[in-house]
Amino acid sequence: MPTEIEQSWAVMARQTDLRAIDSALTDRGGVLLTGTTGVGKTRLLAAALQRVAAGGRTVVAVGGAGGPETGCAENFCSLAECLDRLESVRRHSDPARRTVVGFDDAHLVEESAAHRLYRLAASGRVSVAAAARRDAALPAGVDKLWVERLVERLEVLPFARDVVSAILRRRVGGPVDAATLERLWDTTRGNALILHELVEYALADGSLRRVDGHWHWDGLPARPPGRLADIVRLRLRDLAPEEQELVNVLALVGQVEYGLAERFGLARAAEGLDGRGLVQIEYSGRRVGIRLTEPLTGAVVADRMSGLTAQRLRLQLADAIEATGARRADDAVRMATLRMAAGRVPGPAVLLAAARTAAHRRDFALTERLCLPLLGAPPAPAGPAPAGPAPAGLPAPSPGGTATTAAAAGEEIRGPGAGDGGAAPVPGDDGVPPVPEDGGRAVVDVARASLLLGRALAGLGRHEEAEAVFARVLTGRPEALVEALPPDELVAAVRDRADNVAWGLGRGADAAAVVDGLPAGLGPQGAGVRYGFHAVLALLADRPDDAARTARTVLPGERPDSPVVQHLLPPAALALSELGHPAEALAMIDRHTRDLDGWHADTRLRCLVVTARCAFAQGDVGRVRDTLKTIGRFPAPGDELGRLQLALLRSRLLRLLGRPDEAVTLLRGASALRVRRDWLGTPAWTLAQLAGALAEAGRPTEALQTLVEARAARRAAPPYPPADDAVLLEHAVVLAHTGDRSGAACRALEVVRRAAARPASALTALHLAARVADTPRAAVRAARLAVGAGSELMRLQADHVVALSRSDGEALEEVSARFRALGAVPLAAEAAAQAAHVYRKDGRRRAGRLARAAGARLLAESDCALPPWADAQEHRQRTRTAPLTGREREVAALAAGGLSNRDIAARLVVSVRTVENHLYRVYEKLGITARSDLGGALQSLARHPARAVARAA
């Protein structure tokens, strides 16, 4: 029976480490645990000593390593006292019979005691189990233990993302939404102590709570709680003044370049903090950045920092960035935010540049904050002026860098219009000032700020407010705006408004009117937006042939990389791929893209994402990899859309290669990104992909819980057929991997019916349906969908369906070889297993053995497992009856996650009585009597559905 220590969630998540410690104490004679503060070394050491003592060995401990619960024979105050008692113990050649000496903080042991311990261990009298801080110097005697291999040195690492997820679900006893998991990971970085304190505090104050059946946490409070802050500050003991100064800087700004640290004389401080694990170094091209390892450290330091210190550092940093020339796009953002946080409002030019950069990075909350001073909103109150000379390490603020006199401060705070002889614009009833009619700088500044504000509000999900802002600026004065604004800014604003109307408000016809109302005189840019947006609306209306027809008509007359190409090509290529012509789409992309460096960042990203999707549809894994590398060549710091799409593409590749566990890690991070829905995808689809990857990774309960979350997100948003069908297809994948083959086939065939205008999606769904269940007329339907397809993958999927329908072993072996050539090793192994089953059924045993061996080699090559429907044992026990219906599975998964019947009813929008009836049937079908048995029963059902049916019968 597990002991109290072993039942601790922090120890239960360390079972692999515990087994490694057991092995080291049995085979080598000892173990030395090292790691950063708070990683869980002490708890792990106590658990290891307890296991050893429970196994019958004599264990003596020093100090806190040997509490009463560990079962140690004796507990000494010091290592020297312990060694005095052990001088007379007998020597044992077998390490498993030696007395075990356990102690923590090995880096604090005196040199003389360390040497005595080394002699006892070297003579075979004792085994050692110790823990030490990774960044601390060890006594020579302790170092000799691991150098001479008398003990094994084991690094205790922070918890990985998936472990944090499992720990949190176990602690709260229910499903946790993906955004909360990612938020907790980003805050704690897997540090066991901080994670424990933060979760317990959040549960106590109610910030970690159930919302619609899932546990949700909004993030750190404005002021970190006292005990948690004290624990964080323990790691900052004994910092030198320069190190503390750098920590303060990083707490305020998040990241600074190493060059700035050198400029301030803090380069050595950065090296010292890096050695202690308090900062991490990030490389991006030629830039080297420094940031705190744990974001919580920054929150605690910033909260406890003197207001005067914070103001001084912010102004010094802003001046330093300005002194370097502020050449990078994000320099304006940092200058503006630093000065505003210090109570100084920058001039309109700096604010506008910063707002444009923030909007480009899709940091919409910051964009809104930067736009408001330009629109006449009251500026933040100025803080106290820096007092006294700056200490060594940072130069004092230069007089020209910030407003240091009353006149200068008044000039900056007056905002737009100051200097033109006019007053700042007065906001209207909706908070947006009217655009001045007199022209000049005021009209340009206010118009630009208003349009950026509209984009920010749309990105924040405040779609009605955004439309009000756009309408007030853009309605009734197109000619004036054409003269006042650069064409690219006006075109982008109209596109932002149309996106908001179409995707935020769900009014496609009104969005078309917005782009059709673009004023004349915008040339190719205006035409590009019109063509491109109408192609997007065709995708939204599930008419991909309209988008493809427009591209075939318009693009041949366009020069490569023109504005029309940049706007029209990406959605049109995606439409061609959906129509079953990815080769034509890729050829069109190659023909019209010559210099991607000259493209706008947004259209370039979309073009590369579509290129990768077309390569997937073509079955060209090599081109997918090349495109991912190209996307990586254009890093966009803070661009969450780019991060999201890159994660989705990489996870799709990993799933194709049979590595769903790695895909789960990427998709967890992707699902936490707050990216609004558009034609590239929706939040519901991202969650559905996470559910599918979890099912493929053998986590059925979590997959079903995530699927419920994805379906709720899908219901809450306006329809978008391509993404909605992709969600439904992932639903089928989850059901297939959790044992409901007939339900999976029904969902997949529903996609086939819905995606009649998109042969590629329809054939992918039919391929899944035919693999998991007997599908009537599958061969005929597959052949019809593949007619005229320019995709090798579609032809291969159709051939696979035909071979399954005809039980043709030779054809299945050929399909396996073709999947292998494409790089889809799991599908190749599945086809080989299906061929082996056909041969066995026909009595061709030798051919069956050869096909089974070929499949085994493929599985070994990709280190993956066969899907449950392709397992030979399942073929021998196949039944057409699923033990649970789809709704029963969802109810069972949510109940296994700890939700009450009332919570489940609210989540699934059914009555409590309906939930009770479902659970009654689940218990009866699975042969269980308790709610606590549901998790194990679902896991067994996913692995061996036929056995579960037989057991239920």
Q: What would your notes on this structure say?
A:
The chain has 953 residues and is mostly helical. The chain is 62% helix and 6% strand. The strands form three sheets. It has a six-stranded parallel β-sheet, with helices on both faces. α5 links the parallel β4 and β5. α33 runs antiparallel to α34 and α40 runs antiparallel to α41. The longest helix has 20 residues. The N terminus and C terminus are likely disordered.
Short description:
This protein is mostly helical and 953 residues long.
Helical content class: 55-70%
Distance between the termini: 33 Å
Low-confidence stretches: 1-7, 379-431, 435-439, 872-881, 946-953
Overall strand count:
11
Overall radius of gyration: 32 Å
Shape: globular
Counted by DSSP, the helix tally is: 48
Biggest sheet architecture: 6 strands, parallel
> Overall pLDDT, averaged?
81
Strand content: 5-15%
Spatial order of the strands forming the largest sheet: 3-2-4-5-1-6
SS-derived structural category = mainly alpha
